[in-house]
């Protein structure tokens, strides 16, 4: 896979027309076809459905488009650093997150980084779980934030635990259970469940949801595929959802710990032995920030 193949794919995907892509890239249409064919051969999947009249992205093509754009932008950025001799002045660390929910965790850490590392440039990536793993293992991401169950530890991947987060039942503030100190499984059997079917949800939460769903009639379960959709349904009274505790309060929601569940291990993933001083400094700041802020 090379940069020209990625650029060609992006142009075809955005124009849905080989001729316009060729014109934009200042190459022949047959060259565009060769680049796309070579890329599909290497990925062993079809990225485009094409006929004599139409061009459409396949589901794999839709998924790959954002990754291709991000890789191209990262290469442009790296090239600019070298050309302008700024590599020594800029300390870039690319940080991957599986959902926007992880950004709350980074607030205090990045605030400390800004004060202690003036040349630090965090590159935050919020992308799908599958793409996140691919980019991390391929070296396109320096570090991941998430739950221990999120990322398979293989090769030289290291996990550093930063804190434990309780698994909670999330209710609207006005719910009858809002004043409880903890919720039992029995409490939930007469309630409606908002089932969050997202890769961003830790395995412990998914397992608990699956078990509860087995006791509920179909009309008492509302399905959605991301955090924000689940919280919207909870706020509007459709039911409760099972999520890790949020550090930042929401005046419309209450997070009540689930009785009998173990807290979830939360931390950072990176590759052992990588010579990246800014990354090491970030990890050090993250560990200290958690002790000073999250555990205070």
From TrEMBL:
Regions that span the bilayer: none
Matches recorded under InterPro entries: LysR_HTH_N, LysR_subst-bd, WH-like_DNA-bd_sf, WH_DNA-bd_sf
Single GO cellular component term: protein-DNA complex
Protein's UniProt keywords contain Zinc: no
HTH lysR-type domain residues: 1-58
Database matches in CDD domains: PBP2_LTTR_substrate
Entry annotated with the keyword Disulfide bond: no
Family matches, as Pfam families: HTH_1, LysR_substrate
SUPFAM superfamilies: Periplasmic binding protein-like II, Winged helix' DNA-binding domain
Database matches in Gene3D superfamilies: Periplasmic binding protein-like II, Winged helix-like DNA-binding domain superfamily/Winged helix DNA-binding domain
GO MF terms, alphabetically ordered: DNA binding; DNA-binding transcription factor activity
Keywords tagged on the record: DNA-binding, Transcription, Transcription regulation
Superkingdom classification of source: Bacteria
Protein family according to the UniProt entry: Belongs to the LysR transcriptional regulatory family.
Protein's name according to its UniProt entry: Transcriptional regulator
